[in-house]
């Protein structure tokens, strides 16, 4: 068997830890977004009130869906502009000990779009491009606020489902502020210090020059890494301080930090399912979505783990020992770190792409074809497997609506979800939201695979793997994930522009139909459940939901994947190289 | 009417958007990392500054950052795909430009590189056990700065290092085994050997 016993133990324990975290996190987040007092209120209450006062916000006044959208868009626009300006002027600003110059305009635009949309796609190497100030006040700032924006959007949609015959979805400013002050910031303060205790660096020093035992010199990049590392994971952002992201020993030095980072990536997404159940008054509703996520998560591991642990057959022929043993991790080690081996690399990869994180602790371009297909497919399914902070919940709720609609069609009844009738307008909005992704991904990928500007960036790999790289770029951008098949040279005008548009569409053109959907739902009466109501809590619903997610995904993407990873797998087995 | 609408837009949306952006930038972009840095420097100064190692008062590297080793009397780390600062040429273990090869599984370049590495490894270690070589010794790491090798990769190099230093293979093997870092709680991660730690211990042995 290609999977080791230790692998199974590690994965089981990880899932148990996620399960254990779900309820307390969900309960706490429900309290925060219901405006209740928490144990942090004595400390943070004054700060919260100061922020509202300074901005002229009346926290009691709620917004309709349109007001919520305008507030969200303007706030994000302001942040995106500020980040662009910071990148372009960093050479004149403090905290730049390496005297890094301004970021080129197109790259600065792509990066501003990338961090505003919670994507964190990176067409640059952090340690060579961004000053400490840009990293902190530009990039890490967006790691907080883009995560909080996603959480606010999700909470607004949950309120639309929970409230009866109402008009308002909540106040964007309040949801944003409370998400940051009560949830993200406290966890980050503690988490960052734990990471430092394990070796993640946190300083403003110039790069360190060392003289090695063999008489050479080595220059080691430094920086305020831990404070950014923790929010990068917790906010499912994924943008590495360093080019090597969480494979870099200063970002992720050992198995404990790796475990903490994985739990940070998945924790809020998992907790939000429970929060949803709590806020609609039936926690079983949340657990049903949780169960569907867990099933697909395990399926993803069941494909990727054996693929990577089996190694690359082409290397076996060259006299390489890829067998796992007590003395070595074995498997496909190109692009992976020894301290993580296969299990911790693959578990991190599935976690980071099931959610919309995109941090990587191993380099996905070098995964086996089937091992690389899994993160690609995870993102294409909409990152609803626990999902990104906020975006996972609202994406999953769209699939839940689609599922009750399909179930309704089968028995010939008007579908309803949580007592609210799902009618023409709601189904249209849900379908629109779910079709936008495939249209963006496949559209851009088709254009890039025929234009010379698109093909010119295939500088590292070619053959079917080149198509996989292009598909991966747009899937990751549209999904606001940010992980990459990094062999593709993305820092070109063509990819900077098209990638940025895919990211902006994936974030904002996806969330506006969702809020419109919420706006239409919040005014509906709640119909009491009758004998003909399809229950959305039992195993039947969970299996249907899993089926809908996988079938919609498979039908949409199979033709493209057949020409990329799947044919590459067959050619690898036949011994072909490109 | 348009003026009241404009006023409402400014009051309810534009002003909060701008002021909130500014205040949160100060809180999250300056105060938060500042506080974390202060606490980190106070509580964990060794880790916060890069886990730097000194030998005879000289800064010789970081415990966490791999180095490029070539001498037969030292254990070697893994291949590294890092480039020079401007990206124009290979510069293994360049710790200010981390990165992976990103070569795909069916890449001809990857196959050629691995073939060369296997050949070179066998040439440098004529007394190593024959047969397939440990995978991590011929594949580039994700960071290009992997400080570790597998236990198998360390044991593979024992005969060469022992001969270059005039030590018994048994003595060197013992040193390797005493430097194996096991799994966290016996469960998470993979057993590994930190190359710089091991090489410093080798030097100390003969000091």
Description:
The complex is a heterodimer of chains A (578) and B (207). Chain A has 578 residues and is mainly α. Chain A has a domain of 185 residues. In chain A, the strands form two sheets. A two-stranded antiparallel ribbon of chain A has the order 1-2. In chain A, strand 4 and strand 5 form a beta hairpin. In chain A, helix 13 runs antiparallel to helix 19 and helix 15 runs antiparallel to helix 17. The two termini of chain A are 30 Å apart. The mean pLDDT of chain A is 95. Chain B is mainly alpha-helical. Chain B folds into two domains: 45 residues; 140 residues, no CATH class. Chain B is built from six helices and six strands, in the order ααββαββααββα. In chain B, helix 4 runs antiparallel to helix 5. The termini of chain B are far apart. The model of chain B has no long low-confidence stretch (mean pLDDT 96). Chains A and B meet through helix 1, helix 2, helix 3, helix 6 and helix 7 of A and helix 1, strand 2, helix 3, strand 3 and strand 4 of B.
Question: Main traits of this protein?
Answer:
heterodimer, A: 578 residues, mainly alpha, two-stranded antiparallel ribbon, 63% helix, globular, B: 207 residues, elongated
Question: How is the secondary structure organized here?
Answer:
The complex is a heterodimer of chains A (578) and B (207).
Chain A: H1 5-33, H2 41-55, H3 65-89, H4 105-116, H5 126-129, H6 132-162, H7 172-197, E1 208-211, E2 217-220, H8 226-234, H9 255-279, H10 283-310, H11 313-316, E3 320-321, H12 343-354, H13 369-380, H14 391-411, E4 416-417, E5 420-421, H15 424-448, H16 452-455, H17 464-478, H18 493-522, H19 539-573
Helix pairs in contact in A: 1-7, 1-9, 2-7, 3-4, 3-6, 3-18, 4-18, 6-7, 6-8, 6-14, 6-18, 7-8, 8-9, 9-10, 9-12, 10-12, 10-13, 10-19, 12-13, 13-17, 13-19, 14-15, 14-19, 15-17, 15-18, 17-18, 17-19
Chain B: H1 2-43, H2 45-48, E1 52-55, E2 58-62, H3 108-124, E3 133-134, E4 148-149, H4 151-165, H5 169-178, E5 180-181, E6 192-194, H6 195-205
Antiparallel strand pairs in B: 1-2, 4-6, 5-6
Helix pairs in contact in B: 4-5
